[in-house]
Amino acid sequence: xxxxxxxxxxxxxxxxxxxxxxxxxxxxxxxxxxxxxxxxxxxxxxxxxxxxxxxxxxxxxxxxxxxxxxxxxxxxxxxxxxxxxxxxxxxxxxxxxxxxxxxxxxxxxxxxxxxxxxxxxxxxxxxxxxxxxxxxxxxxxxxxxxxxxxxxxxxxxxxxxxxxxxxxxxxxxxxxxxxxxxxxxxxxxxxxxxxxxxxxxxxxxxxxxxxxxxxxxxxxxxxxxxxxxxxxxxxxxxxxxxxxxxxxxxxxxxxxxxxxxxxxx
Length: 265
Ligand SMILES: Nc1ncnc2c1ncn2[C@@H]1O[C@H](COP(=O)(O)OP(=O)(O)O)[C@@H](O)[C@H]1O
Ligand SMILES: Cc1ncsc1CCOP(=O)(O)O
Ligand SMILES: [Mg+2]
Description:
Helices cover 51% and strands 15% of the residues. The chain contains eleven helices and nine strands. A nine-stranded mixed β-sheet has the order 2-1-3-4-5-6-7-8-9, with helices on both faces. It starts with a helix and ends with a strand. Magnesium ion is lined by residues 95, 121, 139, 195-196. Its EC number is 2.7.1.50. Pfam families: HK. Keywords: ATP-binding, Kinase, Magnesium, Metal-binding, Nucleotide-binding, Thiamine biosynthesis, Transferase.
């Protein structure tokens, strides 16, 4: 599996897919830089007038509800309609699912459009699958990823989406397949936008593997984890981790990836 995952990393570097994000103000810069560091090409856009044309030229669409408002929700619906019409894969990051009724209502509408992939932390996945009866704190998780596996399976069954629960162990589920990745570092949760970055990178990987969103998600999360732990080794705290993480994404070599990857079923 490790060789197959490395091939996906090389494919993103070689093909440089264009990835559109409708994402939050907090992470726009971080996620654009992470996409560039892995070799992909980011574009952040949400004007209603260009949604149809923009989605027509991208390899994948990332929908992140972090700093929602009604104008952007309409942008999301316009973009997803075109993505679904053209079979462009799209990835949902349900940031803060469960935190407010508005967020929950918007997410209900987005789920009906059947995301190709959903990537959230454990609390967000639990909230989504329980129709938001699981209380959440905000954008950070108060649950472990292992607690959200049944929730992920429910979402997969209802909407057909590959579901990734991130955390100390990243768990990716699709139909009867489950993959667990135990890379990364706890300090990653102390940098804002690391989850959003995972989602954005998943967009880049599914753009080069539209036929295999499960493999795309595993490859993106494996890269996040290995680059994150390499960067944490060189960092005194979250400030330097943010910068070192971009460098690790850019410089990662096959030998480091192979040595460190911790993958299981
Ligand atoms: N305790 C941890 N140990 C190792 N990696 C972690 C840990 N917490 C988060 N990560 C990693 O940080 C990234 C963001 O995950 P997470 O913090 O769950 O997302 P979010 O920012 O959306 O809450 C993922 O790549 C995940 O694997
Ligand atoms: C803090 C915050 N508030 C709204 S969006 C956002 C960023 C969340 O990013 P992540 O879930 O990747 O930590
Ligand atoms: Mg998040």
